[in-house]
Design a protein that fits this description.
The chain is an alpha+beta fold. Strand 3 and strand 4 form a beta hairpin. Helix 5 crosses helix 7, helix 6 runs antiparallel to helix 7 and helix 12 packs antiparallel against helix 16. The longest helix has 22 residues.
């Protein structure tokens, strides 16, 4: 059969041509749950720092699907048995792995559906798709959840060296212009093997893995946890927090997008149990819902909400200052005093609820590599797999296994945090 009749071809700036199989995979790609990802930025607010970071969750999902095809075909060449159903189901699992993300990706995690992580929402949406497609996603869901007998298929979806990470590190590095994200994907894929039911890397790929781990660490430090991105995240969260405060006070806002209105006004939306109505409303949300509300609210007669929205829309972010250690009660009290002074100067209220919209202290945490539970394994000449940190002769790798915790305070630029 002619190849053009079996696949729909997409051109991807990171991986080149991506061949999406016609049939179930293409139908899922065209489904509203997946098409919605076109309207959600992959990197949340990182485009406020890196102007090129406008790429979407959809482009990441499509890129991950393309990489997964390459990996599965390579493993077949290495005499790994992967049936056609397993092949298709693994493609489906990676295509759908991010459909549970809400507006601005990780920025608003748990702020709209407050008690549920995006991976739980992904599984709920996958199960809903399975009902719509008469059970054809049973194997894909089993692979996604790690309940399929061939463990290595789940490892390709979620592990310390999964296809999700291989795509987003390379993609995010390209669109932010951060060169440290340029990992050797081809080398990693060509050295992948299945050994005793698990994904391993031939020892000749060990330096590509070292580069991958260092790149992940640098991308977290330079992009994902950039201080201005952290400040922007807190500002957006403060806007939604203030909107909820006003609604709880009986003050109706001048405009809501329909999907966002449900989460602000319907008491059932605060339920810990996600029902069909909540799930359907969530599936209607994207970045545009947030932006259109902010554009209306910037003209509202409530001064705090108006100020916060204008700051966000005009990039008047708060300042983020990293700290040497967790702040003391004395430091926090000092920051509150200075913030109250600044708010009075701006002719804004100084009550506790308002203060909580202009002052935040928190911490970020990142780990470049975690070997305790599901580490990366290197296949040696004697057909024995060794955990990567023990196989590498790079002494700095062990340092990258330790979590990096950074305390920080987000505050008005007019506020000095020095005591």
């Amino acid at each position: 059969m002619d190849k053009s009749t079996q696949y729909k071809i997409f051109t991807d700036p990171v991986h080149g041509f991506i061949h999406v199989p016609k049939g179930l995979v293409l139908k899922l790609l065209d489904h509203p749950y997946v098409q919605r990802l076109r309207r959600i930025r992959q990197l949340g607010l990182a485009n406020m720092v890196f102007p090129g970071a406008e790429h979407s969750r959809f482009s990441h999902a499509l890129g991950a699907l393309g990489l997964m095809q390459r990996v599965l075909l390579h493993l077949r060449e290495r005499d790994t048995t992967i049936t056609n159903k397993e092949f298709e189901s693994t493609l489906i699992a990676i295509l759908l792995h991010d459909i549970g993300h809400g507006p601005y990706s990780h920025t608003l995690e748990k702020s709209i559906i407050r008690h549920t992580h995006h991976e739980e929402l992904t599984l709920m949406l996958m199960e809903d798709l399975n009902r719509q497609f008469d059970g054809q996603l049973d194997v894909a869901i089993a692979i996604f959840t790690g309940n399929y007998p061939k463990k290595f298929l789940h490892q390709l979806i979620s592990s310390q060296l999964d296809i999700d990470r291989l795509d987003y590190i390379r993609r995010d590095g390209m669109f932010t212009g951060v060169q440290e994200g340029a990992i050797g994907i081809d080398r990693i894929i060509r050295t992948m093997r299945v050994h005793q039911g698990n994904i391993v890397i031939d020892k000749k790929g060990i330096y590509a893995i070292e580069n991958y781990i260092v790149a992940r660490r640098l991308m977290y430090m330079q992009v994902y946890l950039h201080k201005t991105v952290l400040g922007g995240d807190k500002l957006l969260l403060a806007i939604l927090q203030r909107a909820r405060q006003l609604i709880e006070q009986g003050i109706d806002l001048p405009f809501y997008s329909p999907a966002l209105e449900f989460f602000f006004k319907d008491k059932k939306a605060a339920s810990k149990k996600v029902n069909r109505k909540i799930l359907n409303s969530f599936a209607d949300l994207d970045d545009n819902d947030i932006l259109i509300n902010l554009k209306y609210w910037q003209h509202f007669d409530q001064a705090v909400l108006r100020d916060l929205c204008r700051r966000f829309l005009n990039r008047g972010f708060f300042r983020t200052t990293f700290l040497d250690r967790k702040p003391t009660e004395r430091q926090i009290a000092f920051w509150k005093e200075r913030t109250a002074d600044a708010l009075r100067h701006m002719e804004l209220p100084t009550d506790e609820e308002t203060m909580d919209c202009y002052l935040f202290h928190d911490f970020s945490q990142s780990e470049a590599y975690t070997y305790h539970s599901d580490g990366i394994w290197i296949l040696q000449n004697d057909d024995v797999a060794v955990e990567f940190s023990k196989a590498s002769d790079n002494q700095h790798i062990l340092a990258l296994t330790k979590p990096v915790i950074k305390h920080y305070v987000v505050h008005l630029k007019e506020v000095s945090i020095d005591i």
